[in-house]
Amino acid sequence: MNRFSKYLGPALGLAFFLIAFVTLMQSQPEKRNRYVYTQLKPYIPYRIEKKMSGLRIRDTRTGEKIEPDNTEIYHVLDRLEKAWGKRHLQLNASQLIVHDDQNRTLATIPLRNEKERNWVRRFFSIK
Fold it and tell me: What confidence tens digit (pLDDT) does each residue in 71-127 have?
């Protein structure tokens, strides 16, 4: 029993560290292409706001406030942005066209390379 007790503390410490690391990795949002996302950000209607007890997501079109758990906020934001992109983005050869709710063109974003086009297709599920 004595030889197991000297390993119990480090084993528990390692177990808690691994659990914390896995939880941290799962709470991270999906990777974004910096150039394309910064060009799209002014048109995406969802914003993260601070409040006393954490964070919330506000839809700038309707003013609706969504208050998920703090650990889930970035996953919820990802889902909202992906749904918005599927409805409001159109991918042409080397351009990303942003539409409003009435399907009028708001902006055209030039895509510089295949990596950016692939990211748009994968992140927003656009064909």
Answer: 889 899 999 999 999 999 999 989 999 999 999 999 999 999 999 999 999 999 987
First to last CA, the chain: 62
Percent helix, strand, coil in the chain, to 5, is 45, 25, 30
36: left (phi over 0), alpha (psi -120 to 50) or beta: alpha
- What is the value of pTM for the model shown? 0.78
Report the alpha-carbon distance of residue 82 to residue 48 in Å, rounded. Answer: 16
Residues 6+ apart with CB under 8 A from 77: 29, 46, 48, 57
Per-residue pLDDT tens over the stretch 76-89: 999 999 999 999 99
2's tokens = 């004595």
In angstroms and rounded to an integer, the radius of gyration of the C-alpha atoms of the chain is 21
